[in-house]
Amino acid sequence: MRVKICGMNDAAAYETAVDAGADYVGFVFFPRSPRFVTPAQAAAIRAVRPGSPPAVGLFVKPELDQIAAVLETMPLDIFQIYGTPELAQAIRARFGRPVWLARGVSSRGELPAAEDAGQGLDALMIESKPPPGADRPGGNATALDWSILAGWTPALPWLLAGGLTPENVAEAIAASGAMAVDVSSGVESSPGVKDLTRIRNFITASRNAAPGLSASTDAEYESTGQGVS
Ligand SMILES: O=C(O)c1ccccc1N[C@@H]1O[C@H](COP(=O)(O)O)[C@@H](O)[C@H]1O
């Protein structure tokens, strides 16, 4: 099981996620998000634990130059992109780093299109569609019907996101078959305010849900076909 904790916007939350064993930490560069950080803020948070898990930069329909500007101050290992597959491909080609493409789904019938969209990319972030009126495409604390993912074996790795919490992540993993999960709202006390206990509990609950798979058993994990690079 791999776990990403997204929306890192304070040092204590970041330290807690790293110390609790997060496999990825996410930084949101979308100004309308309550988790938005400037590149300088992200770099300062990351400096608390140099050499910690891969840093995932989240961008919504970014200009390539916006990403380039962030990279001048904040090194990123992976990009999580909300936008077209063509944009995601262009980002991958220009920056030479893994790109995870986010796709909102609500039915099993939408999964083939999601898989197609991910062709040539490194992973799919499968999540709920934003509720009507939402002013951001993710981070809305809404869950999808996890059962639509049961038995899905796309050609590329995928992570499950959207409305996950320490309380429901085990059920989500069991129902969907996900081997990588991502959370933001579910480890907060209010939008944008991370809760340290909930971060620890989320990581523990995720790992306990799939005890045979952990970041330290990579070979076994990769052999499932859901390894996330
Ligand atoms: O977190 C945000 O504010 C955000 C803004 C814009 C796009 C995506 C965002 N977050 C991502 O959305 C999913 C689900 O989040 P949640 O757990 O339901 O809050 C996750 O991938 C976040 O990284």
UniProtKB/TrEMBL annotation:
<keyword id="KW-0822">Tryptophan biosynthesis</keyword>
<dbReference type="InterPro" id="IPR044643">
    <property type="entry name" value="TrpF_fam"/>
</dbReference>
<dbReference type="Pfam" id="PF00697">
    <property type="entry name" value="PRAI"/>
</dbReference>
<feature type="domain" description="N-(5'phosphoribosyl) anthranilate isomerase (PRAI)">
    <location>
        <begin position="3"/>
        <end position="204"/>
    </location>
</feature>
<comment type="similarity">
    <text>Belongs to the TrpF family.</text>
</comment>
<dbReference type="InterPro" id="IPR011060">
    <property type="entry name" value="RibuloseP-bd_barrel"/>
</dbReference>
<keyword id="KW-0413">Isomerase</keyword>
<protein>
    <recommendedName>
        <fullName>N-(5'-phosphoribosyl)anthranilate isomerase</fullName>
        <ecNumber>5.3.1.24</ecNumber>
    </recommendedName>
</protein>
<dbReference type="InterPro" id="IPR001240">
    <property type="entry name" value="PRAI_dom"/>
</dbReference>
<keyword id="KW-0057">Aromatic amino acid biosynthesis</keyword>
<comment type="pathway">
    <text>Amino-acid biosynthesis; L-tryptophan biosynthesis; L-tryptophan from chorismate: step 3/5.</text>
</comment>
<dbReference type="GO" id="GO:0000162">
    <property type="term" value="P:L-tryptophan biosynthetic process"/>
</dbReference>
<dbReference type="InterPro" id="IPR013785">
    <property type="entry name" value="Aldolase_TIM"/>
</dbReference>
<dbReference type="GO" id="GO:0004640">
    <property type="term" value="F:phosphoribosylanthranilate isomerase activity"/>
</dbReference>
<keyword id="KW-0028">Amino-acid biosynthesis</keyword>
